[in-house]
Design goal:
Blueprint (H helix, E strand, L loop, with lengths): L3 H7 L7 E4 L2 H8 L6 E5 L3 E5 L4 H7 L4 E4 L6 H12 L3 E4 L6 H10 L3 E4 L1 H9 L3 H22 L8 H14 L4 E2 L4 E4 L19 E7 L1 E3 L2 E2 L2 E7 L4 H20 L6 H14 L11 E3 L6 E5 L12 E4 L2 E4 L3 E4 L2 E5 L4 E3 L11
Parallel strand pairs: 1-5, 3-4, 5-6
Antiparallel strand pairs: 1-2, 2-3, 7-10, 8-9, 9-12, 10-11, 13-14, 15-18, 16-17, 18-19
Helix pairs in contact: 7-8, 9-10
């Protein structure tokens, strides 16, 4: 699966003769492959250069572009320069959101073209997933659901956050994930008030919440899920917070569909937490898009005024974080359609007590 034709079709709209792609995520989206290479997409063709570590796999897996083997004597820049001169390319877009200042300076000095910032071209295409992309994301999410079911049989008092995180990685990869979407978050007890807590030596004890945020990749596409479980009987306050977060998530999911803004989706969930008295403890957005990157655009947040396209994939993850005490986050992944959304996360959301 690649998106060369989609990228080529957008070039006239942006006044470009070609698009240069050098980032890992851009390469994965464009080619369905990553080989630390350089891709040039023109209106009627493409060239991809990579080195000896990846050349055999590239020739097996990539269809469409001319594939060039770099050597110490002839690198990516040389192949790109020749292609630009041969095709008489003038305006060449680049990934302005991914390229470093030093990288831009080097390309601008060596390539015989005008480099035009064109991150919006790729971002616009990547915002709406096609059926091939959605199939991969459904597979990744199914693996994540299976890993959650398995981890429930593993967690016990006396175990550390780090042990649980390591087991989550094992469960994801052993079930077919090619790698994790991000380093798992496991937060026990008071660490749960930190949305992006780093798993450490904190031990799980009776009376604690444990929040786990994790996911995997399948052919480069991410899954993402968070669940908060109780170890032993939770307090009434803990149950109240959990119920409020779940109600907020359901409200956001009910509001999620194509052509509404991320701001509207976020507001639907935020209202519930404000009404239940926990609004001040919801310290991040309702969700984010995901795909080949775990965080993509557009986001479901209070500042996002762009309408969500059909095929957008977003997380639904409100949370309440009470400093020094505990936190609750519940996260699913949604595919947006014209009339609503499809929740591709199947794991139960009612409070689980272990």
């Amino acid at each position: 699966m690649n998106h060369i034709e989609k990228i080529a079709a957008q070039l006239p709209e942006y006044g470009l003769d070609a698009m240069m792609i050098t980032s890992e995520s851009g390469e994965r989206y464009a080619l369905g492959f990553h080989g630390e290479g350089l891709l040039l997409v023109t209106r009627d063709g493409a060239q991809y250069s990579t080195d000896g570590r990846y050349i055999e796999a590239a020739r097996e897996q990539i269809t469409g572009p001319e594939i060039c083997l770099t050597t110490p004597e002839k690198g990516h820049m040389s192949f790109a320069k020749e292609y630009i001169e041969e095709k008489k390319l003038h305006n060449v877009g680049f990934e302005s959101g991914a390229m470093t200042v030093d990288g831009h300076k080097r390309y601008a000095q060596e390539l015989p073209c005008i480099l035009v910032p064109a991150q919006k071209l790729l971002d616009g295409l990547r915002a709406a997933k096609d059926e091939g992309e959605l199939a991969l994301m459904r597979r990744a999410q199914a693996i994540t659901d299976e890993a959650f079911k398995a981890i429930l049989n593993f967690i016990r008092p006396g175990m550390t956050e780090r042990e649980i995180a390591a087991r989550l990685v094992y469960e994801l990869l052993s079930r077919g994930g090619e790698k994790v979407s991000f380093d798992p978050i496991v937060a026990a007890g008071s660490n749960g008030s930190r949305p992006h807590a780093v798993p450490g030596d904190r031990m799980v004890e009776e009376g604690m919440f444990v929040t786990m945020d994790f996911g995997c990749k399948v052919e480069g596409y991410c899954s993402d899920m968070t669940r908060t479980v109780a170890i032993g009987q939770p307090s009434q306050e803990m149950e109240d917070v959990y119920a409020a977060v779940l109600a907020a998530q359901k409200a956001g999911i009910n509001a999620a569909r194509a052509w509404v803004t991320g701001q509207e989706i976020d507001a639907a969930a935020r209202r519930v937490l404000q009404e239940t008295g926990f609004g001040a403890y919801f310290t991040h957005s309702f969700g984010h898009s995901l795909g080949v990157d775990i965080h993509e655009a557009p986001g479901a947040n209070s500042k996002e005024t762009r309408p969500m396209p059909v095929g957008a994939v977003i997380s639904a993850e409100p949370g309440v974080y009470i400093p020094g005490r505990f936190g609750v986050r519940i996260e699913d992944v949604l595919i947006l359609h014209e009339t609503g959304c499809e929740n591709i996360t199947r794991s139960p959301k009612d409070l689980i007590v272990l």
